[in-house]
Amino acid sequence: MKMERCNNGHLYNKKRYNACPYCDEAALEANTGSEGMSSKPFTASNTNENGVKTLAYWDEEQGFDPVVGWMVCIEGAEQGKDYKIRHERNFIGRSEEMHIHIEGDKTISRRNHGVISYNPKERNFTFIPGPEITSIIYINDEAIYAPRELSAYDIIEMGKSKFIFIPLCGQHFEWQI
Ligand SMILES: [Zn+2]
């Protein structure tokens, strides 16, 4: 696997990301508020023996990165479309390099409008609003400014679109590796 090093010294997989995903991650972590959240980190990244962070719980080399849930567009430009949620951080935006790539809604940021994170240790999902977006994200009609735990069938409103959240993993099911 060809690794690329960004200006801040992070190593990342150039085949998968056009820009350093860790720099974005740092920006998102800076946005982490205390509201409604425990002080625990998301345990999103592991550090291997070389001190290099790996982004995914199961990385690509193991060849298995199973779906853990879905977001389905129920209102807006991509109504009817589903988006797979994988383990740990799923960046949302219009850009093709985003894990959850929403093309049709121009009111959604190209990069990092938000993140849906699945924590396989605690088996819960969290929505983290992007730090630089100008619009407000609503979950079940409530404006959110800080990370917020998601429950089945929550309605996430971003830009001019609405999405329903459907978990697969959680208390009832988890992939056995
Ligand atoms: Zn970086």
Description:
- There is one protein chain.
- The chain is mainly β.
- It has a domain at 67-167: Sandwich (Tumour Suppressor Smad4), CATH 2.60.200.20.
- 6% of the residues lie in helices and 36% in strands.
- It is built from 1 helix and 15 strands, in the order ββαβββββββββββββ.
- The chain has a 6-stranded antiparallel β-sheet, with no helix packed on it. A 5-stranded mixed β-sheet has the order 8-7-9-10-13, with no helix packed on it. A two-stranded antiparallel sheet has the order 1-2.
- It is globular.
- The two termini are 22 Å apart.
- The chain binds zinc ion.
- Zinc ion (ZN) binds next to helix 1.
- It comes from Orenia metallireducens.
- InterPro entries: FHA_dom, SMAD_FHA_dom_sf.
- Pfam families: FHA (PF00498).
- Residues 92-159 form the FHA domain.
- This is FHA domain-containing protein.
